[in-house]
Write a structure and sequence with these properties.
Layout: H1 8-14, H2 16-29, H3 36-49, E1 53-57, H4 60-70, E2 78-82, H5 88-95, E3 99-103, H6 114-120, E4 125-131, H7 140-150, E5 153-157, E6 165-166, E7 169-170, E8 177-181, E9 195-199, H8 202-212, E10 216-218, E11 221-222, H9 233-243, H10 246-264, E12 270-271, E13 279-280, E14 286-290, H11 293-302, H12 332-337, E15 341-344, H13 352-367
Parallel strand pairs: 2-3, 2-4, 4-5, 5-8
Antiparallel strand pairs: 1-9, 6-7, 6-13, 8-9, 10-11, 12-14, 14-15
């Protein structure tokens, strides 16, 4: 049996009636930009986090850009972030005119190494942008303390960590503003691009809306140069329908992760992801580190098992950032790990038997 990396059709079929009704209601209403579905989702998502404001946006990358702009970050500023993530983490900083400053990842983890952050702070540092990578919360207490000590803004990138918690508190509620992606593969995913920012700050929310609405708070009255980034009405309706299922899906992801943990524990060539004591992870991805990664990836693919690498090149080593002067010696942990990372199939509908098939194939590879 083939096992894909993610199976969006299985998810659709599991809540088909809810989604078909949501989509049909939008089509019947014939309002395709804005309207009640967008406002309803924004209100529901903000309420789910216990925050006052959700601003729906076109995608997760725009969410980062909008958040940075709302915080007043721009030319000449520096933003500290982790060296392992999708490119949007850093290029949104660059697009706003600021400079990303990269810290290595923590040993035996994939989030930013909090012990390195203070050494990166300069007179130009304006913010720390923390990514809760793969659905595992970053270590927030020391990050919050540094932001208070140096009067820095805190941006939480929750694109991969919908409803994950740190010491019982949801990530996305620690900083000045949080950004989300609802790309289809995410724990809470649309059927196209979509994103949002969350904040408890009234002024920040207003700035986000104005900037994302081509610089206008009132129609035809533009007060600044903004962008056009709107959450699509159809996607908002889909997300609202899915929101009622997210906690069950996250629980199923944790079940899948626990099954992998149990089945993989005796394969010495594989290092499993470790959940920190402070964390309640939601496993957007289940990422192992392994010997002979590329050979294993090829073998699993031949066996009909979907795998991927998230992410093969650390952000500081991308050609885009060659001018910043980073090398493997400056980020030794992520440089080593990036040659070992491999994402296994992960989605709520994955059965224990399917996990067993994946692990049996891994075991067969290393025993051959």
């Amino acid at each position: 049996m083939k096992i894909p990396l993610i199976d969006l059709r299985a998810q659709y079929l599991s809540i088909k009636e809810d989604l078909d009704t949501a989509i049909s209601n939008v089509l019947e209403g014939a309002v395709f930009v804005g309207g009640d579905p967008v406002a309803d989702f924004e209100a529901a998502f903000a309420a789910a986090y216990g925050l006052r404001h959700c601003v729906g946006l076109a995608n997760g990358t725009d969410a980062i850009l909008v958040a940075l702009h709302a915080l007043g970050i721009g030319e000449g500023d520096e933003v500290i972030t982790g060296a392992l993530s999708w490119i949007s983490t850093a290029d949104a900083i660059s697009r706003i005119g600021a400079t990303p400053v990269f810290a290595d990842i923590a040993p035996n983890g994939y989030n930013i190494d909090v012990t390195q952050i203070e050494t990166k702070i300069t007179a130009q540092t304006r913010a720390i942008k923390v990514v809760h990578l793969y659905g595992h919360p970053a270590d927030m207490d020391p990050i919050v303390a540094l932001c208070k000590k140096y009067d820095l803004k805190l941006i939480e990138d929750c694109a991969q960590a919908h409803f994950a918690t740190y010491k019982g508190q949801r990530v996305g509620t620690f900083g000045d503003i949080a950004t989300f992606s609802f790309y289809p593969t995410k724990n809470l995913g649309a059927y196209g691009d979509a994103g949002a920012v969350l904040t408890n700050n009234d002024e920040l929310a207003h700035r986000c809306r104005v900037f994302a609405n081509q610089g206008a708070a009132v129609r035809h009255h533009h007060v600044l140069t903004g962008i056009n980034s709107r959450l699509d009405t159809l996607q908002a309706a889909i997300l609202k329908a899915k929101l009622t299922h997210i906690h069950r899906w996250n629980a199923d992801r944790r079940r899948v992760a626990a099954t992998y943990d149990r089945l993989l524990k005796d394969i010495n060539e594989v290092i499993r992801p470790q959940e920190s004591k402070y964390a309640h992870a939601v496993y957007y991805l289940y990422v192992i580190r392994c010997e002979r990664r590329d050979e294993l990836m090829q073998y699993l693919t031949q066996q009909g098992i979907g795998v991927a690498i998230h992410y093969p090149t650390p952000l500081p080593l991308q050609p885009l950032y060659e001018h910043l002067g980073y090398n493997e010696e400056s980020i030794p942990v992520v440089a080593a790990y990036s040659r070992q990372l491999l994402s296994l199939p992960m989605y709520p509908e994955l059965s224990d038997a399917m996990c067993g098939q994946v692990v049996d194939a891994i075991r067969a590879f290393y025993e051959a």
